[in-house]
Specification:
Layout: E1 2-3, E2 8-12, E3 17-22, E4 40-47, E5 54-56, E6 59-61, E7 66-67, E8 72-78, E9 82-89, E10 103-111, E11 116-125, E12 132-142, E13 148-152, E14 158-160, E15 172-174, E16 181-183, E17 195-196, E18 203-204, E19 210-215, E20 219-225, E21 239-240, E22 243-244, E23 248-254, E24 265-267, E25 273-287, H1 293-310, E26 328-336, E27 346-347, E28 352-356, E29 373-376, E30 382-388, E31 391-398, E32 406-414, E33 419-427, E34 435-440, H2 475-482, E35 489-491, H3 497-500, E36 508-509, E37 515-516, E38 518-526, E39 533-552, E40 560-569, E41 583-590, E42 597-605, E43 614-623
Parallel strand pairs: 26-33, 35-38
Antiparallel strand pairs: 1-2, 2-3, 4-5, 4-7, 4-12, 5-6, 8-9, 9-10, 10-11, 11-25, 12-23, 12-24, 13-14, 13-19, 15-16, 16-17, 18-21, 19-20, 20-25, 22-23, 26-27, 26-30, 28-29, 28-31, 31-32, 34-43, 36-37, 38-42, 39-40, 39-41, 39-42, 39-43
């Protein structure tokens, strides 16, 4: 047991399972109906190369997660100020059985006078191990079902949640997406007719960092605070789960959600590796008055700012965790030069710049082994990235209003105490010629397009009047409701992308219930045709199992200018998202395929029979030849 007078933790030795949290008049915040190994625990989802089997819960199975248990306990540090304990599992590469080829050291820190505790883990791959892949790792907290009913993940996204029994067949109806349940007879009658799905409460790394639950009696807040995102994979736009019906609170550290297998961490045979995940802070607060329950959220927001200001922490005992004096900084100014927008460079206003070990454009999105350090530029494009762990990185970035990814190919080496000044940097977005027409606004999401109202049969009331109405269930079928017979036609200069361009290019449901390919048409006029090569820029916010084709003015083979098969494993459509893995395609169109006057580009979602496949476009642009 660890006890600082405010918080008392009960941790099973030597496994490291967190079995009890005593705080605020509650003997245990964790779920007493769950086993001691599944109340507060670390888990991992991994596989051998090829990914056919995922290994979990002590034996090879599918679709579960391996609960990580230590086999060695030790007190790392103990003083009047804090105590840090370790629960370590050590892998022996000579072991021929199929076991997780990682040594994992799970740590808990309890500090004097602090209303909460810190969690982190050191993952280490020793020499001589077999090849394997990691899809996901996290820490999970299952809270008391009878007490924690209200969740909060942002100022706007807070609500009373269903009970776990509501997801069972006698109270809920599972929908086409396995995680989605229609509440037909919930314990709380006010929730009847709503849809519950854990993916509806996903958050971008850049927008999250605080989420949790509030209990009803006594009134206690349980919050997970990320003081830094540096140890989470996928950069600032990576989406992660936060909370879900259980009540469950997640500290997602690495995952594949909204990107898929492209972001799995692949380890070669004999490779060595080490990474510190965390620390993150579990903050606990309380109030004697039910009427002041919302104040717990406000207080947690303040605490998150304090934790961010204190990062990197100075009380972590592991030699693999870098303190402030052991880190460096990188600063500069990012400009954008697009000669068809401005004759002189523009400030990369409110863009994102980051350091990653990824070495190609945009590959920071799928980088899952190293650390990433990101900041948003100011209105003049200036940035300073502080507290960078020593290493060699590339500078990546992207700027709203411009397509593509910025990459500074020059390696940037950060050492303890270094202050690297990069000066002015210029991003040249891809561009050949002047814009003939454009659809949407390039921000790596589909938010600028038409998102329909939810079918009233599948509503989540939290998102009824929300800018995130895309979180509603079943929006893929709303395309058919709007276009029951023929597909979308968008006329340049007449149509409005916010009203007339459906946010997801999905299949259309036929009269027999089967899902059919869809063919979208973009109509445009050319007053003259310039000789040479036109460019069609297709910036995609996400793709899932899509067979996409582009034709010019005719559907025969000679007019086919682009085709890609089985594109993407993002699952953004079924997981109620608005973006996933960003992709940019530049398509050559010979001027011989165009005519003076009326022209059409046909975009065909050629995959049939899949309700949940689809492409989410970010932005489309046709450019005239460079010499025009």
């Amino acid at each position: 047991m660890l006890d600082n007078g405010l918080v008392k933790l009960t941790i099973l030795r030597p496994q490291g399972f967190l079995t009890g949290i005593k705080y605020g008049g509650m003997d245990n915040l964790l779920d007493l109906q769950s086993s001691e190994s599944s109340r507060g625990y670390w888990d991992i989802n991994w596989s051998l190369p090829g990914g056919e089997d995922r290994y979990h819960l002590y034996s090879p199975t599918f679709l579960q997660d391996l609960i990580i248990g230590g086999n060695n306990y030790s007190v790392v540090h103990s003083s009047n100020d804090n105590i840090e304990v370790s629960f370590r599992s050590t892998y022996n590469p000579s072991n021929s059985s199929i076991t997780l080829p990682l040594s994992i050291d799970m740590r808990y820190i309890l500090r004097a006078g602090v209303s909460g505790f810190y969690c982190y883990a050191i993952y280490e791959l020793p020499p001589g191990c077999r090849a394997f892949d990691v899809a996901q790792t996290r820490m999970v907290f299952k809270l008391r079902q009878e007490s924690f009913h209200y969740m909060a993940i942002s100022d706007e996204k807070q609500r009373v949640m269903p009970m776990p029994e509501d997801l069972l067949p006698n109270r809920g109806k599972q929908l086409i997406v396995p995680e989605s349940v229609l509440l037909v007879n919930p314990i709380n009658p006010h929730l009847k007719g709503e849809v519950d799905d854990k993916y509806q409460y996903s958050m971008d790394n850049k927008d999250g960092g605080l989420h949790g639950w509030i209990s009803s009696s006594p009134v206690v807040g349980f919050w997970i605070i990320f003081p830094s995102q540096e140890f989470r994979n996928g950069g600032p736009t990576k989406q992660n789960l936060t909370v879900h019906t259980g009540p469950t609170c997640l500290a997602m550290l690495q995952g594949t959600h909204y990107i898929g297998e492209d972001t799995m961490a692949h380890f070669e045979a004999g490779e060595t590796w080490r990474k510190v995940f965390g620390p993150f802070f579990v903050y606990l607060n309380s109030t004697p008055k039910v009427s002041n329950a919302h104040s717990l959220w406000l207080d947690a927001k303040k605490q998150r700012l304090l934790e961010k200001a204190a990062w990197p922490y100075d009380f972590v005992s592991s030699p693999y965790y870098y303190t402030a004096k052991e880190r460096g900084s990188v600063s500069g100014r990012l400009l954008v030069q697009d000669r068809f927008v401005s004759t002189s460079p523009l400030s990369a206003k409110y863009g994102y710049v980051g350091l990653s070990i990824a070495t190609t454009e945009g590959s920071w999105q799928t980088e899952s082994k190293g650390y990433q350090f990101w900041e948003q530029t100011d209105s003049n494009g200036n940035f300073t990235i502080n507290n960078v762990i020593p290493g060699t990185y590339r500078l990546h970035g992207w700027v709203p209003g411009f397509i593509g990814d910025y990459l500074n190919n020059a390696p940037i080496t950060v050492s303890p105490g270094s202050q690297t000044e990069l000066g002015n940097l210029i991003y040249f977005p891809v561009r050949d010629g002047p814009t003939v027409w454009e659809i949407g606004f390039p921000d790596r999401t589909a938010t600028g397009f038409y998102v329909p109202d939810v079918n009233p049969q599948y509503v989540n009331k939290l998102f009824l009047h929300s800018p995130e109405k895309f979180r509603q269930y079943g929006l893929w079928d709303r395309y058919t409701d709007l276009n029951p017979v023929s597909d979308q036609v968008f006329t340049i200069g007449v149509s409005d992308s916010k009203k007339d361009w459906f946010f997801a290019h999905v299949d259309r449901r036929g009269a027999n219930g089967k899902y059919l390919p869809t063919q979208w048409e973009i109509k445009f006029k050319l007053h003259a045709v310039s000789n040479g090569v036109y460019k069609l820029r297709l910036a995609m916010a996400s793709a899932t199992r899509s067979n996409l084709k582009a034709n010019i003015n005719d559907m025969d083979v000679k007019n086919l200018v682009f085709q890609v098969l089985n594109l993407g494993t993002d699952n953004t459509v079924c997981r109620h998202g608005i973006h996933g893995l960003y992709r940019l395609y530049s398509i050559d169109i010979s001027s011989s395929l165009l005519v003076k006057g009326d022209n059409s580009i046909f975009l065909t979602q050629a995959r049939a029979g899949d309700a949940l496949c689809g492409v989410l476009y970010d932005y489309l642009r046709l450019e005239a030849p460079a010499n025009s």
